[in-house]
Structures are given as structure tokens and as C-alpha cells.
Write a structure and sequence with these properties.
Blueprint lengths: L4 E3 L23 E2 L17 E2 L16 H11 L22 E5 L5 H8 L8 E5 L1 H9 L5 E5 H6 L4 E11 L6 E5 L10 E5 L4 H12 L6 E5 L6 H4 L6 E5 H10 L4 E4 H9 L3 E9 L4 H19 L2 H12 L3 H10 L6 H16 L15
Parallel strand pairs: 3-10, 4-5, 4-6, 9-10, 9-11
Antiparallel strand pairs: 1-5, 2-10, 6-13, 7-13, 8-11, 8-12
Helix pairs in contact: 1-3, 2-9, 10-11
Length: 372
């Protein structure tokens, strides 16, 4: 079952995106890189950590689970696309209006930006598509979305194709709470131990590898695993010493107190650099209609302002969607930052600089959508 979905109606129970937080990641091997035929556990990549090679595991000819191909297939299953003979007209002869496709993450950390849209408070001239960060990354890169919230590192990897939407991000200046390494032993003892990495985020994985190499001085064996909320019970039975979990699943796992050690990656970055950390940004494809992109950007900013003024209401919906207490949801949402100021940009460029120094992203500069 794939989670990427075109959202045409909000969930009448929570008034948030249909499906809320309890959404599994797409079909793929439950763990990739741990004892999988054809992979080399313990091989050393360019990152310096021992991340096992992840072979292609096709579920159907020509398709890899979790790949952009699979994400596009999921999109097409939910969005029936017609191909009129005249690309500018519908079959009946009327002018065809291009629908802007906007991605959103299905975690509660997006409620302050999309809550007003779900409730009809702020009308949106776009079609919403919900998925995990990694799925939205693939859809935007494939041109199946025009704009989306994506993992911050994706901008650095696709700067030629993307422009940033100004003053909009998901970041923290200290603890983030929803991006954490849960460990059965102190982090300094993880050298040559198995660490499972969420398949749902790329920024968090890159940040963890920087911390392992440059701060904690450990080189664990890393393998990818499904780590959404629906997967937490299964994770407990997999061989590992630590696991990186993000989003609603991280909040739920923290509440279980199943691991004696928990390392908040936002807090660790702040301790290391003194700067905020930007986990997600909103980006538009350069090929997208710039006028439409500006209109969507204006809507998102207005929706964010409404959301930040109604965190009590959003916390109730978040608690209903996740099972986390209302008070905890309220404090979690209040602790996130949805702006993209000069200070946030300093943290973002510092992160990109460190990745570029290791050859993980190309050198580049930040370019923004012109909104004036």
C-alpha cells in the first residue's frame, strides 16, 4: 500500500489531512541492508559510516519500491490524468486550466501551515498531495509536483531545478523532539554497532552521519528501515542497537520509554554549531508557473499565520491523530519555527557547507522565488 495520495477532502474526524499520522510508508523491504542477499554489510561509503549497500528490490518489473518510479505510479493511481488532443484545451474545446500540485507531509508538524487550508479558512488554488518527506522529495524531483515541502537537503541536491519559497520552513533552535536517535547504549559506544535509519527522511540521515563522524567520533553500521508510527512494534524485533526515527513516530516512541538513551538531533546540532537547524523547506520547480507559485506561497504564509495563532485548536486535532497528549502536542508545535530568517539561513548554509565538504552535495547558492 502506498501513501502518496491526492487529497480532495479533509478527514471529517480530525479536519486534517485524510489519514492523519497513522500512515505506513510504501511497500519495500522492511529493513534494507541487514542480511539482505546481495548487499555488503559493513561496507564503507563516502560518508565514513558503515552504511550497508541497499540493492534494488523490485516488486514489479521495472519498478523499485520507494523509488521515484513507485511514487509516480502511486500518484497516477490516485490522480486520473487525461491527455487531450490539444494540450491547451479539454476534449470539449474549453480551455484547460493547469492545476498546481502542492505537496505536504502527513505529520502533525505541518498542521500549523496546512490547518487553515484544511478548514477552508484560507482558500488554496492547488491540489494537495500528502506523503512522507522522502516520497515528496521524489515526486518534486520527477516533476509530478509543482511545489512542495521537502527535506532541506533536497534543495542542495536539486538547486538547478528548484527555487526556495521565502520565509517558510520547519526548523528548530534547540530541541526539535520529532527527530531523534533512540539507543540502547550511550552514543559513544555505537562504533561498529547496527543503527537503523528511517526511510522517510534524508536530511535527518545526513545530519546523523555528520554527528557520528564529526562530533561523536563513531562509525556504526547503518541500514535503512521503515520507521513510521505503524512500524514501531516491528522495529523492536529487529537486530539493532539504535534507530533514527522522525515525525509523529518519534513522539510516540519517546512516550514509550523503550530506549534508555535518546539524542535529539536538533539539540545536538545547536550544541555543536550554536545555530538553528532547518529540517524542511518549501520549494518550487523553476519550470512551474511562477505567478501560480507566488499565489500558493502567499496562501501558505497566510495559513501559517492563522495556524500559529490557533495552536490550541491544532493541538487537539494532533492529539486525536497521533494518540499523543494534547499538552505534549501543544508544546511540540509551539517549539517548532516556521520562518526562514537570516539566522535560519545561516544554519542551513552551514549544514550545506559541511555536506559539500564531504562531497555529498554540490557547492551552490540559495535562490528564492521573486515575490515582490
Amino acid at each position: 500500500m502506498a501513501v502518496v495520495r491526492s487529497d480532495r477532502r479533509a478527514d471529517p474526524r480530525s479536519r486534517e489531512a485524510a489519514g492523519g499520522a497513522r500512515r505506513p510508508v510504501p511497500d519495500r523491504a522492511h529493513v534494507r541492508g541487514l542480511g539482505t542477499p546481495g548487499c555488503r554489510p559493513g561496507s564503507v561509503g563516502t560518508t565514513g559510516s558503515r552504511r550497508a549497500d541497499i540493492p534494488d528490490l523490485p516488486s514489479s518489473p521495472g519498478q523499485r519500491p520507494g523509488s521515484a518510479h513507485a511514487a509516480r505510479a502511486a500518484w497516477r493511481r490516485h490522480c486520473r490524468v487525461r491527455a487531450p488532443t490539444d494540450p491547451g484545451r479539454e476534449p470539449g474545446g474549453a480551455r484547460r486550466v493547469s492545476v498546481v500540485r502542492l505537496g505536504r507531509i502527513g505529520y502533525i508538524n505541518c498542521y500549523p501551515v496546512y490547518g487553515a487550508i484544511d478548514r477552508g479558512v484560507t482558500p488554496l488554488a492547488a491540489e494537495l498531495v500528502t506523503g512522507t518527506p522522502s516520497e515528496l522529495n521524489d515526486l518534486l524531483a520527477a516533476g509530478e509536483l509543482d511545489l512542495s515541502v521537502v527535506s532541506a537537503v533536497e534543495y542542495a541536491r536539486h538547486a538547478r531545478d528548484y527555487i526556495l519559497l521565502p520565509d517558510l520552513a520547519i526548523s528548530c533552535d534547540g530541541p526539535v523532539r520529532s527527530v531523534a536517535l533512540f539507543s540502547r547504549r550511550p552514543v559513544g559506544q555505537l562504533d561498529d554497532r547496527t543503527v537503523l535509519l528511517t526511510a522517510s527522511s534524508r536530511t535527518a540521515v545526513d545530519l546523523l552521519e555528520l554527528l557520528c563522524r564529526d562530533v561523536w567520533n563513531v562509525r556504526p553500521r547503518m541500514a535503512q528501515a521503515r520507521a513510521e508510527a505503524a512500524d514501531l512494534d516491528g522495529l523492536a524485533h529487529l537486530p539493532h542497537e539504535a534507530v533514527l526515527v522522525i515525525g509523529d513516530a518519534a513522539l510516540l516512541l519517546a512516550a514509550r520509554h523503550a530506549y534508555p538513551h535518546r539524542y535529539d538531533l536538533g539539540e545536538e546540532w545547536k550544541r555543536w554549531t550554536g545555530l538553528p537547524f532547518v529540517f524542511a523547506i518549501w520549494a518550487a520547480r523553476r519550470a512551474a508557473d511562477q505567478r501560480a507559485a507566488r499565489a500558493v506561497h502567499h496562501t501558505l504564509l497566510a495559513a501559517r499565520d492563522w495556524g500559529l495563532a490557533h495552536l490550541d485548536l491544532l493541538a487537539v486535532a494532533a492529539a486525536r491523530a497521533t494518540g499523543v497528549g494534547i499538552t505534549d502536542c501543544r508544546s511540540y508545535l509551539a517549539g517548532l519555527d516556521y520562518a526562514l530568517t537570516d539566522r535560519h539561513l545561516a544554519g542551513l548554509t552551514d549544514f550545506f557547507r559541511r555536506l559539500a565538504a564531504r562531497g555529498l552535495v554540490p557547492d551552490g547558492s540559495l535562490q528564492f522565488l521573486q515575490v515582490a
